[in-house]
């Protein structure tokens, strides 16, 4: 009996030690999960800002914070894994709800309901001149005209680009593009009407086909004027525009909202539009979604081919040892719903702090 009692005593001792170990482990983990709860609350706060309505989403630093909403899914996913490992049920439930909400918001980047976007011809099969229903298009913010002109022209040639829109261009860049031979590929151009609201330079548009009509100021806007060229493609006439509203910096926030609202007025215009450029806004901004309305769509958001982050580009830290990745998608191809755009890709152009965004459109999709 003595041996049996010793065995029971040993078991009790082991259980006490195991219980003490569990309590100590729980105490050690408590600060970690406190931090994870704080992170989750911050994510929820950012998600609430994402729901700020048009007109109010330009206040203070709201537009800057909201631009990073897509990355919150990564934060929620990592926190969810930690919560599951640590058996924190409440935290796991909250993280799951956050993650599901974020996936719903960005479902168009993951899966497209319009399979026509995957049926477009490859770039190599496109023919020049825009006479058929297809065209390869490209947009680039040139960072005050500092972008590499030769690389722009080389990309236009290699990608069979038939419509090119540039933002923040200046006389020096236009001269370098001409010297690099852009006129031999895209002989027709429209330069925006200069105004006192030009932000970083003027907008420019180049086409391979001769436009039916052009204008240097498509709309009244408190930003760089929007040049436009209407081009005949197959049986339709498409009106292309190069846009660049102000960025949502604190000193520009009123101009940021009004610029996007001005572009939104094109919803009532009868022409068929493809608008390209640096919109200085993302799908998560209410002002950008208001711009789209029921008429326009963002090629990136409806393509089902993931995000195409365009900003920043060519930025490094610590003397060039660390390259900053592109974090936000603020350059867009916005078009009427009857137009199909697919085959999206980004290209890094030296000298610019934006990546070029390219796509293939079908005007009779």
In brief:
Helix content is 36%, strand content 22%. It contains ten helices and 14 strands.
Would you mind describing this structure in some detail?
The longest helix has 49 residues, at 2-50. The termini are far apart. Helix 1 (2-50) runs parallel beside helix 4, helix 3 runs antiparallel to helix 4 (89-105) and helix 9 runs parallel beside helix 10 (286-292). The protein has helices at residues 2-50, 62-66, 72-85, 89-105, 107-110, 149-158, 171-179, 182-185, 253-264, 286-292; strands at 134-141, 161-169, 188-191, 202-207, 213-215, 228-233, 236-243, 272-278, 296-298, 316-317, 322-323, 331-336, 340-348, 355-362. A 6-stranded mixed sheet has the order 3-4-2-1-14-13, covered by helices on one side. Strands 5-6-7-8-12-9 form a 6-stranded mixed sheet, with no helix packed on it. It has a two-stranded antiparallel sheet with strand order 10-11. With 365 residues, the protein is of the alpha+beta class. It comes from Bifidobacterium thermacidophilum subsp. thermacidophilum. The chain crosses the membrane at residues 32-49, 61-84, 91-111. It holds the Pfam family Exo_endo_phos.
Overview features:
single chain, 365 residues, alpha+beta, Deoxyribonuclease I, Chain A, 2 domains, six-stranded mixed sheet, 10 helices, 22% strand, globular
Question: Layout of SSEs?
Answer:
Elements: H1 2-50, H2 62-66, H3 72-85, H4 89-105, H5 107-110, E1 134-141, H6 149-158, E2 161-169, H7 171-179, H8 182-185, E3 188-191, E4 202-207, E5 213-215, E6 228-233, E7 236-243, H9 253-264, E8 272-278, H10 286-292, E9 296-298, E10 316-317, E11 322-323, E12 331-336, E13 340-348, E14 355-362
Parallel strand pairs: 1-2, 7-8
Antiparallel strand pairs: 1-14, 2-4, 3-4, 5-6, 6-7, 8-12, 9-12, 10-11, 13-14
């Amino acid at each position: 009996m003595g041996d049996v009692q010793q065995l029971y005593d040993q078991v009790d001792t082991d259980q006490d030690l195991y219980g003490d170990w569990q309590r100590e482990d729980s105490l050690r983990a408590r600060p970690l999960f406190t931090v994870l709860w704080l992170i989750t609350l911050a994510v929820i706060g950012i998600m609430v800002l994402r729901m700020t309505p048009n007109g109010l989403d330009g206040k203070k630093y709201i537009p800057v914070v909201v631009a990073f909403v897509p990355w919150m899914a990564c934060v929620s996913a990592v926190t969810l894994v930690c919560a599951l490992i640590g058996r924190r049920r409440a935290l796991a439930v909250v993280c799951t709800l956050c993650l599901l909400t974020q996936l719903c918001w960005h479902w168009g980047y993951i899966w497209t309901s319009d399979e026509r976007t995957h049926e477009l011809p490859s770039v190599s099969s496109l023919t020049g001149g825009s006479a058929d229903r297809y065209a390869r298009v490209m947009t680039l913010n040139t960072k005050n005209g500092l972008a590499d002109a030769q690389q722009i022209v080389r990309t236009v040639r290699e990608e069979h680009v038939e419509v090119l829109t540039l933002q923040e261009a200046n006389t020096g860049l236009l001269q370098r593009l001409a010297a690099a031979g852009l006129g031999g590929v895209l002989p027709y151009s429209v330069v925006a009407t200069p105004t006192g609201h030009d932000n970083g330079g003027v907008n420019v548009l180049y086409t391979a086909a001769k436009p039916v009509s052009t204008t240097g100021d498509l709309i009244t806007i408190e930003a760089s004027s929007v040049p436009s060229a209407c081009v005949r493609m197959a049986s339709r006439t498409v009106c292309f525009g190069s846009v660049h509203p102000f960025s949502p910096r604190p000193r520009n926030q009123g101009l940021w909202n009004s610029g996007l609202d001005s572009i939104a007025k094109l919803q009532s215009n009868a022409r068929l539009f493809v608008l390209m450029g640096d919109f200085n806004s993302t799908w998560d901004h209410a002002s950008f979604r208001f711009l789209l309305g029921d008429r326009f769509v963002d090629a990136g958001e409806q393509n089902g081919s993931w995000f195409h982050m365009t900003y920043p580009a060519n930025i490094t830290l610590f003397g060039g040892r660390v390259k900053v990745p592109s974090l936000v998608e603020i350059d867009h191809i916005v078009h009427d719903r009857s137009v199909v755009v697919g085959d999206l890709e980004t290209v890094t152009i030296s000298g610019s702090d934006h990546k070029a965004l390219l796509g293939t459109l079908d005007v009779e999709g």
